[in-house]
Amino acid sequence: MALRGIDLDIRPGEFVTIVGPNGAGKTTLLRILATLSRPTHGHVSIAGHVLPKGADQARRQIGLLSHQPLLYGDLTAEENLRFFGQMYDVPAVEARLLELLDKVDLLERRRDRARTFSRGMQQRLAIARALLHDPAVVLLDEPFTGLDPHASDRLEEMLHLLRDGKRTVVMTIHDLERGWAMCDRALVLARGKIVYEARTAEVDAATFRHEFKRVTQ
Amino acid sequence: MTFFRKAWIIARKDLLTELRSREMLSTMGAFAALIILLFAFAFDLRTGSTGSTARANTVTPGALWAVIAFAGMLGLGRSLTSEIDRGSFDALLLTPVDRSAIFLGKAIGIIIFMFVIEAVILPLFVIFFNQPFVQPAIILIVVLGTIGYGGIGTLLSTMAANTRLREVLLPVLLLPIAIPALLAAVKCTSGALDGRDFSEWANWFGLLVAFDLVMLGAAFLVYDFVVED
Q: Is domain A1-61+135-217 in CATH 3.30.420.10, yes or no?
């Protein structure tokens, strides 16, 4: 069992970072929140929709950015967004995809196939895909994995756009410093349980780092 | 209406990506051509020797469906695994689209790929085995057989693609389940090839149609459970 007795309540507009060692259950937790996996026990509610019954309504409220771009390499940037826009029934999808491609600085490359993009560009296109339907909840699963420092900084700038007070963001990450700097609340997951949590307004980074080492030993 | 529109958008996406990469069609096509060539030399049915026509009528329907089944299996294995490996299948599952529409879209895509390959296979059978494979009755049998095989294959390849033993698991799962359809398709093809009256092979034809209906219906109903962890 990857997760045990997780009791987690995330407020609308909150940015929560989940850190933990490999195998702690971070990805499993995110897959459950994304409706991709079903928990064996307990219940999950996303934006007021109880899973699995309300999974379809919940999916309309969820955007997922993973360490894999989750794109079709043989489709162009705009074809990828158009396809997902049609799947989400995004109104005025053409205008929306152009707006997002502009935001992620890929407007000029919109007719190029996604497989020709660098890793950083693919990740930016993946942000556009995740935000296409204007989700209330954004899940970020190790979004910086495999990016060079420049691409990571660029991605972080773009993820800051998510902090508009309306969107709830849950991010799993290995980089403690970056994860702490971006969030309102950080959780430490180890052996399938939340073993420590702290708010950035109440605890400093050094204390969090120290506690992380202690609880994951 | 939205259901079918979404299924078609998924199928169209699969066709477009395949048209550009040609990963699946080239593999299926090359495999089919090689097997036909192999059968042509192994059976030696075009020589005009005594009894070769009768032998051809007995052997070629089975050979045709062996080629369709194995070439189709290559396509089925490829269509889902590449999407699952890249994670784009997860992105598709994240959308609020009915899982049955996803199944239908994927199945339409693979069935169209199989039709494309069959459009090459049938004339090759005419050339190599000198048998009238390009005729309305056989085309109808091939269409029905492909729909059933591609439909259940889409479901089983989704199941297999999520396992470690996927390359081995797909044939192990698919062939036993597809036996009724393949057997019925071989018998129908043989009947049509011999020019026998439809009443003589109507039962096999009925089995083929029933297989399509039952398997597609079952796949529709259970796809939701198959794609969820």
A: no
